[in-house]
Amino acid sequence: MTSSPPGAMTGSLPGGASADRIALTGLRVRGHHGVFDFERAEGQDFVVDVELELDTRTAAASDLLADTVHYGELAEALAAVVAGEPVNLLETLAGRLAAVCLADSRVAAATVTVHKPQAPIPLQFADVAVTIRRDRASAVDPDGGR
Predict the structure, then answer these.
(1) Which CATH number goes with the domain that contains 104?
(2) Domain count, the chain
């Protein structure tokens, strides 16, 4: 499987327009998610990567921030979710983060990866992560359902 570099034209949007991508990677936020009481009490760092699919041609032509997704504001909104109400599963957290991404009507789809590098696993490991992709047609439930 090959992946396109950030900003590459891939996929298509309604009306046949090509989908560009905006990526925000490595957003590290302290949260209290997990199924164990100590995870909820002590908290741990979560790392979030998102990739948005949208048409950036209007922004490219106008050179105006208002014509694209403001990734600083997006980062703040995602951080608020991670630092906010605890959930048991990374899948649920990823679903909530995808809903934040899709709240901007210009975003056709979002791929979200939530990393939990300090997951309570009694073995040496590098990372645990859940990746989901939601598009406007399939995004119904911000808790990850359909």
Answers:
(1) 3.30.1130.10
(2) 1
